[in-house]
Amino acid sequence: MxxxxxxxxxxxxxxxxxxxxxxxxxxxxxxSANGAHxxxxxxxxxxxxxxxxxxxxxxxxxxxxxxxxxxxxxxxETIRAVAAQHGRLDTVFANAGITGGPGYTFPNxxxxxxxxxxxxxxxxxxxxxxxxxxxxxASVMKPRRRGSIVVTSSVAAxxxxxxxxxxxxxxxxxxxxxxxVAALELGPHNVRVNAIAPGPFATGIGNGRLRSPExxxxxxxxxxxxxxxxxxxxxxxxxxxxxxxxxxxxxxxIPIDGGTxx
Length: 262
Ligand SMILES: NC(=O)c1ccc[n+]([C@@H]2O[C@H](COP(=O)([O-])OP(=O)(O)OC[C@H]3O[C@@H](n4cnc5c(N)ncnc54)[C@H](O)[C@@H]3O)[C@@H](O)[C@H]2O)c1
Hints:
Elements lengths: L2 H4 L6 E5 L4 H12 L3 E6 L2 H12 L5 E5 L5 H15 L4 E4 L21 H26 L5 E6 L13 H21 L4 E8 L6 H4 L4 H8 L14 H8 L10 E4 L6
Parallel strand pairs: 1-2, 1-4, 2-3, 4-5, 5-6, 6-7
Helix pairs in contact: 2-9, 4-5, 5-6
The structure holds nicotinamide-adenine-dinucleotide (NAD).
InterPro entries: NAD(P)-bd_dom_sf, SDR_fam
Pfam family, one: adh_short_C2
Protein name: Short-chain dehydrogenase
């Protein structure tokens, strides 16, 4: 079978949350470039509109929807509306996420400085918001007996590190476990649920700190490949999970981390 057929997503409808920047932007890019209709959802309206417009200017089928995934009612309404509008929903990337500050080796990153307000927001976005996204996607996919849901977790779900915050570790580990349970529950409905577990990617997260050479170097020191990733490097895995090339994959937490897990 040829790659174009194996990884075909043309004509499919996908939603990506956190689509205005970084990993979600790259996911939206690869899906729309390969013929999917992508609904890009993000809290940052200006950045979102700009990104969607740039894809549309290349003739791609892309919509922009302002959405805070911590607004659980809005998440449900948005996903149901997209499915109703298109009469289908094939893939949902629950990707939106925030760091909740730096890890304990950075100034004010130690546990004594953890703000419970920020802790709650991290949980609301990374855990509850991602679960609400997954749940709404599942509810429209189940009757059609088809669909692929992909949650962006993190290597911080798989092992502890001094670099991300306590809340970030907790939220990403918790959502990874939700993904496993959801895969069990949705398997009989032929809806697949997987998580990706990225290592350090140079994105806008944490005010873009991974783009600073010093911070990037501290992350790169933990990576066997010796560098942080560029956002384009998520594209292959995103296309795999959105397409039928991954038809027997569900319940997996897939590292994409330059070897960190080795
Ligand atoms: N960059 C990394 O090193 C790394 C590593 C592992 C996991 N991740 C995860 O990847 C995902 C994407 O992050 P990124 O690195 O591309 O960062 P990013 O900041 O470049 O992109 C995240 C996007 O999510 C949006 N967003 C934030 N809160 C939102 C909310 N409540 N509702 C809707 N959108 C919201 C932001 O506006 C932004 O456009 C996150 O879940 C993050 O935790 C990133």
